[in-house]
Amino acid sequence: MATQMAFLGIGLMGQAMTKNIVGKANLEKPLILWNRTQQRAQEHSSNIGHSLVATTVKEAVFSADIIWSCLQDQKAVTETFEEILKMDIRGKLFLESSTVVPDVTNRIAKEVEEAGAEFVAMPVFGEPSLAEKGKLICVPAGPEASVLRIKPYLVGVVAQAVIDLSGEEAGKASLLKIIGNVLIMTTMEACAEINVFAEKTGLGVKNAQKLIDNFPHAAAHTIYSTKMINGDYYKEEAMVEVKKARHLTAQVLELAKANNVSLKS
Where is the active site (predicted)? Predict the structure, then answer.
């Protein structure tokens, strides 16, 4: 029997990921899309084809075998799963790609499994331009058999690589995502400081960018710095609102403090 997939969350990342799923995953059945703002899901469905829009979370989950979610923040994740867990979800597989702290991921995984379903936590690394190109790095964690079921939708579809945490508790994937976000934020901070330094010393940001573009192992710096000096962060829709990024930073620092780690940067 053909697998029916649903995707919850049509933000910038969700749009890029679902476009690749529809275009590259050889789905036998149309991809079910759900988003809190239904109009966005409808417009996106028209753009990518081979998809249909559910009006509610329950409608999306009811018809699907695999439910993939990539939601805006932890609050959206917890609220969505509170609604999902009121349903009969036996036999379904939930694949969660949002940024959530480990304890919350483990709690949701436990509740989903107790309800008779499977759960894989799979945060991703890569901003929307990489997601468009199918070059995300996926970090799945959960039961090995469950991770195996979702692998056909990863490399060659949405991802260029997988950091496989099969057999580990779901929260380990969330923890790795948080640690990766520390790398991302410190990279962005370095780019911002370098560009200001170059501008104020008279070198200019264009010359600094030439160094960044050719600096060994600086691919991530190139992406973030280019967006900064081209004004993309000013022009584009925000992937993460500043207040939510600050909230995530607070969560990271709380986790670090609890484990006696100093994150000075």
Answer: 177
Q: Catalytic one among 177, 200, 235, 243?
A: 177
Do residue 113 and residue 183 come from a single domain?
A: no
pTM beyond 0.70, yes or no: yes
* Phi, psi angle pair for 160, to nearest 5°: -100, -15
Q: Are residues 47 and 79 in the same domain?
A: yes
**Same structural domain for residues 69 and 185?**
no
pLDDT digits (tens, 9 = 90+) for 88-136: 999 999 999 999 999 999 999 999 999 999 999 999 999 888 999 999 9
Token pair 């509740």: residue: 111
Instruction: Tell me the pLDDT tens digit for each residue of 124-163.
Output: 999 888 999 999 999 999 999 999 999 999 999 999 999 9
C-alpha distances in Å from residue 226, one per residue of 79, 220, 222, 231, 261: 36, 10, 6, 8, 32
